[in-house]
Design brief:
Layout (H helix, E strand, L loop, with lengths): L2 E6 L3 H10 L6 E4 L7 H18 L4 E4 L17 E5 L4 H5 L6 H5 L3 E4 L1 H5 L4 H12 L1 H11 L5 E6 L5 H14 L3 E6 L3 H7 L7 E4 L24
Parallel strand pairs: 1-2, 1-3, 3-4, 5-6, 6-7
Antiparallel strand pairs: 4-8
Helix pairs in contact: 1-9, 6-7
């Protein structure tokens, strides 16, 4: 077997679209997106799956649809396969691939949304509803004020992987609940298409069997705390 994909389930829309565009039929293992809340647990789960793949299937390559993701991939190692992943801080970086205004967009106080993030049980809106039920309106408003203190608007990314107009009403309602403005930006799945097309240029890391992912693999990136990610 040549490739196996480890994929974050919150990117399901984008990954399925990218695989179709790349005519990719590699087997895929979905990773619970809630683990992003706990980077060490995400790391441990990824390593567990890599070890299982090494024992049971031993492909040439394991394709990771993850970026740095809060240190989650650092230290990962396969004994039998190359680990191949995009040079990206997180999934927002993936979706803003080759956008010349990426740094400006990311530093402008945007809290990013996609259909996958809006559906997540850990989305900011679902968190709001849980806090409201538990604490009431006044305390919930204070909590949200702290959580969103550095954000100016919700930004719905149109990645081209789903009908964005279907998500707009939910995004608008989310913005209304949390007293935020809503804007839209064009996203891209080209980085994922390249991953699944085996077009592994300088925008990808290839870690050979027996070697670990290190911080040096992300030396070209700014690894300051990511802003705008729901998970």
């Amino acid at each position: 077997m040549r490739n196996i994909i480890l994929a974050c389930e919150i990117l399901e829309d984008e990954i399925r679209k990218a695989r179709s565009a790349a005519e990719n039929q590699d087997p895929i293992i979905w990773i619970d997106s809630s683990l992003h809340m706990f980077p060490q647990k995400l790391h441990d789960k990824l390593q567990e799956e890599i070890d299982r793949i090494d024992r049971e299937q031993a492909p040439e390559n394991i394709l990771l649809s993850f970026g740095y993701c809060g240190n989650s991939v650092v230290g990962l190692k396969s004994s039998t396969a190359n680990l191949i992943f995009p040079q990206a801080n997180d999934c927002i970086d993936l979706f803003l691939y080759k956008n010349k205004d990426k740094i400006t967009i990311r530093s402008s106080g945007c809290y990013f949304l996609t259909r996958g993030w809006l559906k997540s049980q850990y989305s900011i809106v679902n968190e709001y509803d849980r806090y409201l039920e538990r604490y009431g309106q006044k305390k919930t408003d204070r909590i949200m004020d702290v959580m969103l203190a550095h954000y100016k608007c919700f930004t719905l990314l149109d990645t081209g992987a789903y009908p964005v107009e279907d998500c707009t009403p939910i995004a608008l309602e989310s913005a209304r609940k949390l007293n935020m403005q809503l804007c839209m930006k064009q996203g891209s799945i080209q980085h994922l298409i390249k991953l699944f097309s085996e077009d592994w240029d300088e925008d990808f890391c290839i870690v050979p069997p027996g070697s670990q992912v290190t911080l040096d693999h992300f030396s070209e990136l700014s690894l300051s705390p990511a802003q705008g990610q729901i998970l």
